[in-house]
Amino acid sequence: MEVIKIIISFLSSMLQFATPIIIAGLGGVISENAGVTNIALEGMMRMGGFFAVFGAYISSNKIDPILGGRDPLAGNPWVGILLAIIIGILAGLLHGYISISLKGNQIVSAVAINVFALGGMTFFLERYFNTTGHSPSVNSFMGKPFIPILAKIPIVGELFRVMNVFVWLALILPFVVHFYLYHTHWGLRHRAVGEHPKAADTLGVDVYKVRYFAVIMSGVFAALAGASMSIGQLDLFDNHMPAGLGFIALAAMIFGKWKPLGTLLAALFFTLANVVQIFIQTYAPQVLKIIPRGFFLALPYFLTILILAGFVGKATPPAADGVPYEKGEKL
Amino acid sequence: MKNLAFDNINKILNWWNAKKEDISTFLVPIISIIIAFFVAAIMIKMTGKSPIAAYKLLFQGALGRSLKEFLSLKQAGEGILKGAILTLTGLSVTVAFKAGLFNIGAEGQFIVGAIVAAYFGFKFNLPPIIGIPLILIIVGVTSGLYGAFAAWLKIKRGVHEVITTIMLNWIAIHLVENWIVVGPFNILRYNPQAVLAGTPYISDSSRLKPLFAGTRLNSSIFIAIIAVIVIYIIINKTVLGYEIKATGLNIDAAKYAGINTSKTMIVSMFIAGALSGISGACMILGTEGRYPGVFRPGYGFDGITMSLIGNTTPVGTFIAAIFFGLLRAGATGMQLIGIHKTFADIIQGVATIFVAGQTGIKYLLFLIGEKRVVKPREAHDGSY
What we know:
The structure holds 2 protein chains of 2 kinds.
Chain A: H1 2-33, H2 41-58, H3 77-101, H4 106-129, H5 148-151, H6 157-161, H7 165-183, H8 185-195, H9 197-202, H10 207-233, H11 245-255, H12 260-283, H13 287-290, H14 293-308
Helix pairs in contact in A: 1-7, 1-10, 1-11, 1-12, 2-3, 2-4, 2-10, 2-11, 3-4, 3-10, 7-8, 7-12, 8-10, 11-12, 11-14, 12-14
Chain B: H1 2-46, H2 51-63, H3 67-71, H4 76-98, H5 106-123, H6 128-157, H7 161-180, H8 187-190, H9 220-237, H10 239-249, H11 251-256, H12 261-288, H13 299-309, H14 314-333, H15 343-356, H16 358-367
Helix pairs in contact in B: 1-2, 1-15, 1-16, 2-14, 4-9, 4-12, 4-13, 4-14, 5-6, 5-7, 5-12, 5-13, 6-7, 6-12, 9-10, 10-12, 13-14, 14-15
């Protein structure tokens, strides 16, 4: 019985930790399959994370009886999701405008977005919550199962109890994106634009339109991933968020060979390393004397290098990934 | 009379048309920074504070309240010190850029350099004139190899350096933070009564001492200036520099011309890694005195923006780094009216966004002469 409980709690921590990585990784998959690299996932997650909390906060119209001002716990977290989506669209649009219309350097643009997110969100945190640590607790999805009935099942119910709306999204979206990319004609066009934009253009596919769509969706996914941290795993925005998870998502995308289901598995695998580390810390701390924590934390990145170098399988990006497309260019 | 005026305008336009390509290269970063200040001013205005008052505090915080205070370097010293650290990581990115490589890994190389400096700074107790250069050399080689590894993977296994360097950053961060600093090289191993997290303090003789009383500015700035000069000479006056530039501009043409492009890429990434590592070492030997428990200054990532805003030239990088170093030091002064010091990141971020979209700015500049489509002219197109 004790063992089953540990297994269930192991699985539920894995699901929780993997959620932002899966969602952000899918954002990367969508964007890069259309030929626009996105190493700004980290910054976009940060923006989404903050604005989700902000949305949940401003939707409250009750007055805090003790402190005055808005009562942060009376807001609506769905407004938070909405605001995160809007900010994701804007961030994606910016990255898209520079990468697609201006044909600027996509990596430079992404680095700039990451830097801006770092300073910008701290600025907003101070502006609206008068702190540079973390925002007050808002009404969130933390600990709110999306399907409460399932949480009532004995034993397994424990697993469904942590499955809030974001966890469900993380489990369903990979299949949705997979279906879109590989089983619809839009998906075929989408991948064609990433592999050979010239050919796609010749066949009448609007390369720019597809790329804009891809980058904007990638911004939305990344922002949702950020929201899943701030109003899913927790109920506040911490100024350290997302603490490198955007880069793990990037690694998961590569480890999953730029495919949605691959990304799902890679994200789960990466989280496994982290959760094992946490469980060892709780149940068998002496193991960490032999294998230090840092090894577990560095493992996902190390494996990503190995797989890219072809020591473990082979991962190849879409052929035109990162190459700006000029309409009417001669071959 | 009228004709003369037209002639003059035509002359100016002709001159502009001939030179605009070069001039706009200089103008883009400046215009970007000016736009960034405007955007940031709007953000300050949104918070109900006065942008003018804020910028006044920023200026005073960066340079000092009076000419006398400026010359004493009491205020400006802090900014110049930050600028020196940024110069080194910025140069690191610049050197790699010249060879057509994107060194996102400056952060990881910085951390490797910092921990190596902390270790040897602690172990060595030599006269500063021998000890410090020796530490810097060891740091340069270790971080250089860490950087060169990414180039090696690119050449041998065809892995794009942007991805490997990102991964190498996090490998360095996790191994150093969650293994070396808390494990084998923890201060508790040497001093069980210690209350601070991190590594033991380096020996007094390994420290870079402040140049004047009342400021933290130390000889890092000289190390940075020497690095700028050396890198300028390497890139512009030596065969190696020529080969690096040739490889960066067109790798196939360089190969055809008989240049060993693999060697060139490895060497340039080695230099890049060494520079970032030395930057980390300057921080440990100068202001920190040890590798602290929590150490994420982000100077490696900032190096990327320094290089880009500096047009990826050594001197440009230096100017950008000193500018943003002063800006960061000055931003601390804005905390008086409740604006957090990460405000500097906003300006840096917005300026870089405009540098990234520079074809837009160039297009507008070029409209002043004739209409013409601007195409990206970069060796690196942003692809993996």
